[in-house]
Amino acid sequence: xxxxxxxxxxxxxxxxxxxxxxxxxxxxxxxxxIAIPSYRSYVRRxxxxxxxxxxxxxxxxxxxxxxxxxxxxxxxxxxxxPTLPNTPSAFPIAGKYFTVSxxxxxxxxxQTYTLTATGTAGxxxxxxxxxxxxxxKGTTSFDGAxxxxxxxxxxxxxxxx
Length: 161
What we know:
This protein is α+β, with helices and mostly antiparallel strands. The protein has a single domain, classed as Glycoprotein, Type 4 Pilin, CATH 3.30.700. Helices cover 32% and strands 23% of the residues. It contains one helix and eight strands. The strands form two sheets. The protein has a six-stranded antiparallel β-sheet with strand order 1-2-3-4-5-6, covered by helices on one side. Strands 7-8 form a two-stranded antiparallel ribbon. The protein is rod-shaped, with a radius of gyration of 29 Å.
């Protein structure tokens, strides 16, 4: 008796077709293209906290220095930034993500100053924030572009108060 090819049991292949695999790859790519930039932005905003904390801390120390000396300079005739007590070094003070510098002391005896935190590592490069003796915050550089915002920007157009 001859075997009838149509009467043989059909064997189904196990696994995925190429089309199914390509659909899965496309979906993962779309999700990654949304998630990775959001994650980087989230990490960057966390790193901004170092700049904001250091600027606030150094402002308090500058005010304590002023209370003791009645000027912000190293001497009454100087316009150089002082070495503050209880700081790791003289200006500029390097942190993990930002370096804080001191400037704009004005004419001697210095009665004004501006502290600037400039991003130095990884995701903070291209960002710079300021704080002056009257507590005025500013953003001079945001994501590599010049800025004149009178606040500390954390996201495009969003101030950190």
